[in-house]
Each structure stands twice: as structure tokens, then as C-alpha cells.
Amino acid sequence: MDIDQVQRAAVARFAQQGFAATGIRELGTAAGINSATLYHYVGSKHDLLVRIISECLKAMITGGREALSTAQTPTSQLAQLIAFHVAFTATNPQTARVAEYEMRALTPVSREEMQQLRDEYEALFTKVLTDGDKTGEFSTADLTMARLAVMEMGTGVAHWYRPHGRLSLEQVQQNFVAMAYRILAVRETAKPSNTPLPSAQQLPSEPTAQHVTQTVN
Amino acid sequence: MDIDQVQRAAVARFAQQGFAATGIRELGTAAGINSATLYHYVGSKHDLLVRIISECLKAMITGGREALSTAQTPTSQLAQLIAFHVAFTATNPQTARVAEYEMRALTPVSREEMQQLRDEYEALFTKVLTDGDKTGEFSTADLTMARLAVMEMGTGVAHWYRPHGRLSLEQVQQNFVAMAYRILAVRETAKPSNTPLPSAQQLPSEPTAQHVTQTVN
DNA sequence: TTGCGCCTATCAATCGATTGATTGACTTCC
DNA sequence: GGAAGTCAATCAATCGATTGATAGGCGCAA
Fold first, then answer.
1. CA distance A152 to A148
2. Mean pLDDT in each 10-residue stretch from start to end of chain B (217 residues)?
3. Chain A contact for B20, CB < 8 A?
4. Residues A56 and A37 in one domain
5. A36 with A122, same domain?
6. pTM greater than the 0.85 cutoff
7. What local confidence, expressed as pLDDT, does residue B209 receive?
């Protein structure tokens, strides 16, 4: 038993029924351990949630920065950033959902810390959009609303994307980049051609079919 | 004391800390009544949630249909529908949030019923987009993804819109219609000019500053 | 007008069940 | 032998829900 298994079990339950609705005995059962053992790995139920959200947001920030660094112009940077955002959300839908929905379950102090990480991530989008607005590559009536719209529609991917569904991850990425380009009125000539889009690592906390709860034999 | 006050108090707490994290004694205190009295108005905590979500979704369906009926072409229908969606979300942010987040707290039977209402509302968007695609007014690589993106970015308005903020509701509506038009590549000549956009009624369940919890004098 | 019956609204007190968390003892492994 | 891992048992607190009782308003007959 290691802490990643505990986190995966927790994310699976938190994503499905929420933090408050999940008891520690249920968490233990899902992870295959006694509820008391859980406190040997994580300080408390709350600390467990902090770990999950913190690791998720930090991975998003790191991945977002990497995506930005692979491109030069705001136009191609936007493509990389959105493609990463979509990839991360589609690869870690349950963890991302917990990080989004359960912020309110945190203590005020922890929530403030996590909110700062969230702001840090959103700042990446703000920077790219502002840069592109200055160079004239982007055109929109309101930069803030454009950022909110672009981010929100990407986040929504977690609600419906399925690994073996009608659309491949790359198709979804390309389509969302295209929609963002349209929102920002990027000229056809400015669009990068055939640039490889970034993928996203699966977080240790993201539960998968391979990580099903171990039951008695 | 009437049932709307109970619902408003419940929505305020559910939106802030979630259904599972809110106790019935807390609900009673917020509504200014004893927890037992709450059972005189609503059958149970769960029934209260069902009422809230059901009334919200039914209002969305009704409002969405009305919005559609005021326009003829898919292009202007889309504007009306999106403008309503944004108006409803901005006018009833807390109720809308509860209806979105707390679906998972419902029993399987109730969740199925509410999901059907949700599907009914989403079908309005599907219909408009399909019609516009047939007439050639819209152009997109994937109709389903376009619908998901357009709806999701509109729903996100609940997260940041404030009645007396930088942007008026009408400005937000116009901007989101414009972004949707861009996503769907609506031609400039096809856009309706100066059409009045729909507003949305405030639900009886939506808590406002006028509905603050009554305290002892 | 008085008085009786009925209904709605309300609450203090309490129910059994469950919550998050802790303890002390037992096992396992180096 | 000591550190790490594990769990049954238990803690006080809180949970959703129910009980029996009270207060007040309304209609109606005497």
C-alpha cells in the first residue's frame, strides 16, 4: 500500500459524490485498508484533499509553462496552451473535477493557498492573450471575457471526453484550438501549420480502470 | 414563513458549501425556523434539493423556448438562446450552480428525472445548431463540440458575473453572442442588427441581498 | 358573543446511526 | 529490538429524521 493508491481511491470517490459526502471508512474500504491506517499516510481527510488539489494545480502550472516555452508567437503559444489545457483535463478528468469543485471544502487558509496557484495558472492565459492583443494577432471586444470563455470551454472537456469515444484527444485539441482562434479572430495566415500539440501526463492521483478497488479474492 | 424563504436559505448554503456539507439544523437557522419545522414544508432534505433543481431546470426550458420563439432564422435564434442562457445564469448564479453541482447528491431515480430535463434544455441548442448547419448559416468542424463549448462558456458566467461589476448584463450578453457567432463562423451580413436580447426572471429560490437571514432584533 | 372542533404552524427533546479522529495492541520486516 | 504498518475498538460530536406537545387562527353552531 502506498499513498498514491490512497489518493486515487479518494479522487474517485470525491469526484463521484463529493468530499463532504465521503466518509473516511468508505475511503479506507475503497483503498483496501482500515480507516485508521489512512491516518498513518495522511494527517487528516482535509490534508488529503489539500494534497490532491495542490498536486493537480502545480502540475497544471508546470505543464502550462512548458507548453508556452515551445512556441514563440502569441498565436502559436495560445495553441500550445489550450491544447495542453484540454489534454490535461481530458487525461485527468476526475482529479481536475475535484480540484475545481472541492475548493470550497478547504479551510480558509488552505483555500487561499490553492487559489493563488489557480491564479498563477490563469495568469498564463492572461499573458498570452495580452501579448497577442498588443501585436494585433488577436482581436476581441473584451480580453477578460475572451479568457474566461476560452478557459471555461476547455475545462468542460472533463464532463464529456472519453478515451475511446467518437473523438480522439488530438481531434479535440485541434478543434478547441480552432474555436479559440475563431473567438480571437486569428487570421488564417498567422496560424501555425502542423505544429505538434502537447500531451499531458496522467497524475498519480488520477484513478483509471487499471486502478480498480481491490476486493477480497 | 413560506417555502420560498426556506428554498432561498437552502440555495445560499448549498451553493456555498454544498448539499452534503449543510446540516438541516443549519438550514433551519438560516431560514429562521426550527429544523423540525423544515419538515413541515418539505418532505426531507433530499426533497428540498429536488424542488430546487427541478424548478430551476423547468424555468430554463421554458425561458429557452420563449427565446427561440422570438426569432425565425437559426442565426437570430442562436443569439436569443445564448443571450437567455447568459441572462438566466447571471440572474440566478447560485440556483444554477446548485442545479449543476448537486445533481450527484440525488437518488438514482431523481437524478434520472432531472437529467431528462437537462437533456431537454440542451436539445434546444442542438436543434438551433443543426438547423443553422443545414441552412449553411453556421460552419464548424464538429457540431457537438461547438454546442458543448458554447453552452459551457455561457454557464461559466455564474462564476464571475456581478450585478454591479465592470460589465453590464447586456454587455456580457452581446459579447457572448459575438463569441458564439465567431465559433460558428456566422457571416457578417447574416447577423441581425439591434435585436433586443431577452432577460431572465429571478427565480423564487435565488437568494439576494434583500433576502438576508433574519436575525433577532 | 361565546365556545367547541379542526387545521396549520411551530418547537424542544430525542431517536438510532454515522461522522472524523484517536488509542493501544498486534504483526511484520529489517 | 526497534521501526513501520495495520487494525479492532472506541471516543465525543453531529447527522437526518421523528416524536409529542403547544399556540393560534378560522369556521360554525348555539
1. 6
2. 88 95 92 88 92 97 97 96 98 97 96 97 98 97 98 97 96 97 92 87 88 36
3. yes
4. no
5. no
6. yes
7. 74
CATH number at residue A25: 1.10.10.60
Whether A187 maps to a domain, the answer reads: yes
Query: Among all strands, which nt has the closest C1' to A35 (CA)?
Result: D7
Q: Which residues, 6+ apart, have CB-to-CB distance to B115 below 8 Å?
A: B103
How high is the pLDDT of residue A61? 98
Q: Are residues B74 and B89 in the same domain?
A: yes
For residues B146 and B129, membership in a common domain is answered with: yes
What's the domain count of chain A?
A: 2
Can you tell me which residue has the cell 482535509?
A46
Grid coordinates 476560452 are at which residue? A150
Same domain, A70 and A173: yes
CA pseudo-torsion sign A120, A121, A124, A126:
negative
Q: Distance between CA B130 and CA B140 in Å, rounded?
A: 11
Whether residues A89 and A115 share a domain: the answer is yes
Give the three cell numbers for residue B32: 429562521
| pLDDT score for A211 | 54
Q: Which of chain B's residues have a Cβ under 8 Å away from the Cβ of A20?
A: 17-18, 20-21
